[in-house]
């Protein structure tokens, strides 16, 4: 009977288990989440948890997926503006705010784990990639889209985890702002109107809009994409250092 209780009210065993786990996680961290505690809070027996989620890791993954979904729902309500860099700032601040408001859930969501990323994590990366592409299309990206996305993701996650680890009374509210602006300075240029495009910004911008063209065959597009990627990589600061070292014979 436990599997059918309250289903008409939209609170079947799966929903109750997820809600109970999220509450336990928020109140006491991962250590508070056990089969016994979840079962008692959700009014189900252990076999029901195992049948629905496999094991505790499966349950935590499902809770993390729910957290990602809620996070993405908040992010997608942000209306795009004419300035994609300003939109990146807003997205960064929302990311940090979500982590600090849900520290235990954020830690579960960002646990290193083998295998493919959960679908919601893939969706989050797709959201960030789309935002980076808008910056590239505006001619304001100084590195490749892939490097910019990786840097934003790594820096945002690292900043959030650092702030979570700090005692609340010692948290520096400016740390996130400084990290955010350092990343933006590293990956973006001034507005194209203020400065002419460099080879890298032009290559990255053209690479971003290349899929829209119908003037090239699929093979020609692949070749053009390879050339543009090589230009962007050659102009990358770290690649430039390597090139100078090779020229000096070091």
Helical content stands at 55-70%
| Approximate strand percentage | under 5%
What can be said about the biggest beta sheet? none
Rg, please?
A: 23 Å
Low-confidence stretches: 1-9, 236-250
Cα shape: elongated
User: H/E series, N to C?
Assistant: HHHHHHHHHHHH
CATH architecture heading of the largest domain: Orthogonal Bundle
In the residues, how many domains can be counted?
2
CATH fold type of the largest domain:
Tetracycline Repressor, domain 2
Helix count, DSSP H or I runs of 4 or more residues: 12
Q: Give the structural class.
A: mainly alpha
Name the average pLDDT.
81
What is the first-to-last residue Cα distance?
74 Å
Text of the CATH class of the largest domain: Mainly Alpha
CATH superfamily of the largest domain: Tetracycline Repressor, domain 2
Strand tally is: 0
What does this entry look like structurally?
There is one protein chain. By secondary structure, the protein is mainly alpha-helical. It has 2 domains: 1-54, Orthogonal Bundle (Arc Repressor Mutant, subunit A), CATH 1.10.10.60; 64-192, Tetracycline Repressor, domain 2, CATH 1.10.357.10. It has 12 helices and no strands. The protein has helices at 13-28, 35-42, 46-53, 56-76, 84-101, 103-109, 119-137, 145-165, 173-187, 199-209, 218-235, 237-248. The protein is elongated and about 60 Å long. 26% of the residues are buried. Residues 11-71 form the HTH tetR-type domain. It holds the Pfam family TetR_N. It comes from Streptacidiphilus cavernicola. Keywords: DNA-binding. This is TetR/AcrR family transcriptional regulator.
